Amino acid sequence: MSVPGSKSGTNRALLLAALAEGTSVVRGALHSDDCDRLVMALQKLGVTCTPVDDGWEIHGVGGRFPNGGTVDLGDGGTPARFMLAAATLSSEPVVIDGSKRLRERPMADGIEILEALGARFEWLGEVGHLPVRCVRGIEGGSVEIGEVASSQFLSAALLVAPWTSQGVKLCCESEPTSAPYLRMTMRSLANFGADVEEREGNFSVKPMRPKAMHQTVPPDASTAAYWWLAASLVPGACITVPGFGQSLDQPDASLLSVFEAMGAKVQSGEHVTLTGQSLGGIEVDCENFPDGAVALGAACVFADSPSRLTGLHTLRVKECDRVHALATEIERFGARVVEHADALDIIPGPRSGPEVEVAAWNDHRMAMAFGVLGLVRGGVRVCDPECVGKSHPEFWEDLNALREQA
Fold it and tell me: At the top level of CATH, which class does the domain 221-405 belong to?
């Protein structure tokens, strides 16, 4: 099962290419609602983005967007948070907005960080939420970072740091939320030639003028997770994700070791193969792979023993409240769930039973996870299946292809 390019990698590559000086080609880029919305926002600010085979040709603006205006990021949390930072490098005021759900998601932490670096914003609706207007640009500097709702706010500030006058230094009081995604940002910057350093909880990016470069986005671990889920649930099933060896540093690649601990067999190299065995329950902290926790929660439905998933606090403010959504939908399969503030206790359900109608909660991860469970237990209907377009528009076609191979 091939998987599309990393959504996280695509968003980072697109923004860096847009800000660089010269023309970059981003190959392997994911075409999805989130990434396409980011491209449209960059185009609105004056970036020329031309589709090419398997990606985009990006004509960078050299650190200063020529246009302003209103950009609508739809449901895209990552693109919106990245655009908050990008707007601080625009020559004109920029309004960042999105869907009803995106307006509910927290933005205050990101604004606070950017304003500490010299930018200024105006709330146009409810304070702490979109829509918001950027009215003054970023200068850079050093910021003390406490607990934040999402590492995306830190990543956003670091991604624009090379084009500030002072650079950016984030001094974290403790390990940041979803720290592996922050380190992905640092690697993306370094690959683009930026001068970066991580030392003793400090993340620093010095001012410079990165030049354009060609990039290839690796396969998406967050999407591969659903094929590993499929293989793990069926003893003897074997699924290979080709070319995934270059993606093992993505946060959701940690799921491989979790599925292995539950009983699956994993073979890693240029390609990664997971073979299903009898799947036992597990107790695991999901802090470092929050998106993958949705696939893992679905796996626990049909495990042989109870599971406990902790470190789920960031899932409360994703596309939906994923902690509550998982608890609600898992119970439709006859499993029992105890929902805590940042944890789920799951007692497995039967592999057979009456037909089940599952709500996707307008969340691509929820739709994909419970869609895969339909391979194990027939009669599973997922409402609002189109929401997978946020990260993997071809998911249902791929799932049908997998079903035909079974």
Answer: alpha beta
